[in-house]
Write a structure and sequence with these properties.
Elements: H1 8-14, H2 16-27, H3 38-46, E1 49-54, H4 56-73, E2 77-81, H5 82-87, E3 96-102, H6 108-119, E4 124-128, H7 134-138, E5 141-144, H8 157-176, H9 185-200, H10 203-213, E6 219-224, H11 227-243, E7 246-251, E8 268-273, H12 279-291, E9 295-301, E10 311-313, H13 321-339
Parallel strand pairs: 1-2, 1-3, 3-4, 4-5, 6-7, 6-8, 8-9, 9-10
Helix pairs in contact: 2-8, 2-9, 4-8, 4-11, 9-13, 10-13, 11-13
The protein binds 6-O-phosphono-beta-D-glucopyranose.
6-O-phosphono-beta-D-glucopyranose binds near residues 102 and 153.
Length: about 350
């Protein structure tokens, strides 16, 4: 039930810190170690490459998952749009491991890949919010995201829960490979949950940003580098899905290779800047579009901020920043849709779970 909330989407955005804490409690054993099936751990440790399959928002979580698994666990990862992989399969490595990410566990495009991969007898894992769903039943292993029912068509808490589970998995595999971690994933996730709560309590600020930047516009750009780029894609998708504002996410460095042609006086752009190693590059990308007239709203992280930034996120582990930076973007999409009088929980032409190819 949505209770006092005007929309399920807002309720689900608000639930995110709690969901992350729930994920922590489900995956942490009494000794503080990671609780993951030993068989799954072994199969992952044998793999020479991980292939992540998903659609929509789950695909965006999969892109973040690639960074988590490569940078933390040290395993090469490819993230694919399921419907593309199905009919244009790349050359596979000799010991592949397949991860399916799906909120509903019912998406036909993802299932199409799972059926094929099972015929090839490669090991499979489904990360899903729905126990007993088709993708969960048909894969060798399942990790649940424990986000609770997600009613709004635009996915919010399922996305952050998927990222949290992928992070735990990455840290688990790293531990097995003895990459000398001094990081406690549960501690890092709970710092992120606290930071998420801080952002959720800044709703008025987000409403103000929407009023200032998106009130009269028909389009919007999102830019970032590394995981911030992947969050930009998700921010743009959220805005498109529910407010019908044409939005696009771009890699900060790619703008000058074409897209910058679309920037005119007053074009709104949202820049995300949480990655220290590309801070200077991102700052110059912001300058490039400002110089062409873009109306830029910058969301940065503490320690990387500049005085004119519009929102500063609390510091979290550098690969867990998507958990926090996505929140202002979800809220921006929400308020933009609200101002436009859109049907927030049931956007036109969209279904929560798509069971046809
Ligand atoms: C789309 C939904 O059709 O499917 C999106 O509208 C969702 O919100 C996507 O992200 C993938 O769904 P799932 O259940 O496989 O994560």
């Amino acid at each position: 039930e949505k209770g006092l909330y005007p929309h399920y989407m807002l309720k689900e955005i608000d639930e995110q810190p709690l969901v992350i804490r729930k994920v922590i409690s489900k995956y942490q054993d009494s000794e503080g170690s990671i609780r993951i099936d030993a068989g799954l751990r072994n199969r992952l440790n044998e793999a020479d490459r991980i292939y992540i399959m998903a659609c929509g928002t789950s695909y965006h979580a999969g892109l973040v998952g690639k960074q988590l698994l490569e940078k933390i666990a040290g395993i090469p990862v490819e993230t694919h749009i399921a419907s593309e992989f199905l009919y244009n399969r790349p050359i596979l490595s000799s010991k592949p491991f397949f991860i399916f990410i799906s909120q509903s566990g019912e998406t036909a495009d993802s299932r199409g890949v799972l059926v094929t991969i099972k015929q090839l007898q490669y090991p499979t894992l489904t990360i899903t919010n729905v126990p007993g769903s088709t993708l969960s039943r048909e894969a060798d292993y399942t990790l649940l995201t424990y986000a609770g029912p997600e009613i709004a068509v635009a996915s919010t808490k399922a996305y952050t829960a998927q990222i949290a589970v992928l992070a735990i998995l990455a840290f688990d595999v790293m531990r097995e490979r003895e990459r000398a971690p001094h990081v406690n994933p549960f501690h890092e996730l709970s710092i992120a949950a606290n930071a998420m709560e801080i952002m959720i309590n800044k709703k008025e600020m987000m409403e103000e940003i929407v009023w200032q930047y998106l009130n009269a516009s028909r389009n919007c750009f999102f830019i970032g580098r590394g995981v911030d780029y992947y969050v930009s894609l998700e921010g743009a998708l959220k805005l498109k899905e529910i407010s019908y504002i044409q939005a696009e996410g771009f890699a900060g460095g790619e703008l000058k290779h074409g897209t910058i042609a679309l920037i005119e006086e007053g074009t709104p752009a949202i820049a995300i800047l949480t990655q220290a190693h590309v801070r200077a590059n991102m700052r110059s990308n912001v300058q490039e579009i400002k110089a062409r007239g873009a109306h830029v709203c910058t969301i940065s992280m503490e320690g990387l901020e500049e005085s004119e930034d519009h929102m500063v996120l609390p510091v979290v582990h550098e690969l867990l920043t998507p958990l926090v930076s996505v929140i202002p973007l979800q809220l921006i999409a929400y308020y933009a849709a609200k101002y436009r009088g859109c049907d927030i929980d049931k956007p036109r032409n969209l279904a929560k779970s798509v069971t046809v190819e």
